[in-house]
Amino acid sequence: MKKIMQDDDLEYAMGNLLRLGVVISSIIVFIGGIIFLYKHGTHIPEYHIFKGNESMFNSLPKIFIGLKSFKGQAIIQLGIIVLILTPIARIIFSFIGFLFEKDLLYMLLTLIVLAIISFSLLAGTKIV
Amino acid sequence: MSIITFTILIFFGSLLAGFLGSLTGLGGGFVIIPMLTLLFGVDIRYAIGASLVAVIATSSGAAAAYVKEGITNIRLGMFLEIATTTGAVLGAYIASYTPVNTIAIIFGGILIFSAYLSLKKKNENILQTTKSKLSYTFKLNGTYPTPEGEIGYKVTNVIGGFFTMMGAGLLSGLLGVGSGALKVLAMDNIMRIPFKVSTTTSNFMIGVTAAASAGIYLYRGYIDPGICLPVTLGVLGGALLGSKFLTNAKTSRLRQIFAFVIIAIALEMLYNGFNKKF
């Protein structure tokens, strides 16, 4: 029974961690949004044209360049990256939980999930 | 229409989508993509990207509430996430090689299927024994609290469930939705997991699955800040409102109405897809 208690405590912490991630990312997106609308609000949107690889904020380096000049869109993207990292933090948390329980099988399974997600994120940095 | 008007309109549309999605348990993503494409003429790839981001936000935001009920089976979730994340990465890759009209048609089909699933009766029978050796190897069997105390349940057909989950992940990566209905189907009907456990464990997996395709989406330019801004904040706000309204009141009626609305939207997506309007 003791094991289940630990599971619950860990889950509770994880739930709060996820909510914190969502709150932080929403605040960043909101701030970026205000700047974006202030600078570009009166422009005409071109969302019917897909720019794909030509888009201005589709990789970490491009987003960081935009952040340096306080571009609203770059700040929004930063908030979205925080959001994407939130469930990944949960996976890392689970790993620590399984480590405490000395559950080797599930430590391995958790690492596999982390590896798959990392593959996708690295695809974004053009390494893969 | 200027960017500011566009942003405000999409914000309120997403607020409504998030509200209805949370009340009915169908998720807001299913309404976001048709709304952006059919109503606002947004390219479907931007719509898919924004929807995926909204899916991560709502599933992470709802997790804290679900955890309080204490019925998520973390081991089961982690085990199945190997299937859903693999599927999601594959789906995100396939998406960029699939013509947009084909994606719209698949979306319409899945929409109808999910609406049908949401109207079906849920599995409340609990297996007390299982022949599945894998369920013991991977420690997937668990217990959950009821007013009468902890009840144990056993998991069956682990391999069938695993591959259905991979399919659910693939669709999530291809269409930018949480495919929660399919995840629950895999756990309910195939693995025979009690409904309360499958719903919360599905939510646990949705955010992780969506995060697995998000990197590829970002790199391919699917995630546009101008569209994600009103969609993410709107859907989150709506889901929050929905969870406040969600008492033990009967939502089955609402679920039925919403299912029919979704079928109508699906037909519109199919019609436009077949006429190559995307």
UniProtKB/TrEMBL annotation, chain A:
Organism, as annotated: Hydrotalea sandarakina
Residues spanning the membrane: 20-38, 74-98, 104-124
Annotated InterPro entries: DUF1634
Alphabetical keyword list: Membrane, Transmembrane, Transmembrane helix
Lineage: Bacteria, Pseudomonadati, Bacteroidota, Chitinophagia, Chitinophagales
Protein name stated in the entry: Putative membrane protein
Pfam families the record matches: DUF1634
TrEMBL record, chain B:
InterPro entries in alphabetical order: TM_pro_TauE-like, TSUP
Membrane topology of this protein: Multi-pass membrane protein
Keyword Transmembrane helix: yes
Predominant location category: membrane
Cited Pfam families: TauE
GO cellular component, one term: plasma membrane
Transmembrane segments annotated in the record for this chain: 7-40, 46-67, 74-94, 100-119, 158-182, 202-219, 226-245, 257-274
Cell compartments where the protein resides: Cell membrane
Keyword tags: Cell membrane, Membrane, Transmembrane, Transmembrane helix, Transport
Similarity remark: Belongs to the 4-toluene sulfonate uptake permease (TSUP) (TC 2.A.102) family.
Protein name per the record: Probable membrane transporter protein
Organism: Hydrotalea sandarakina
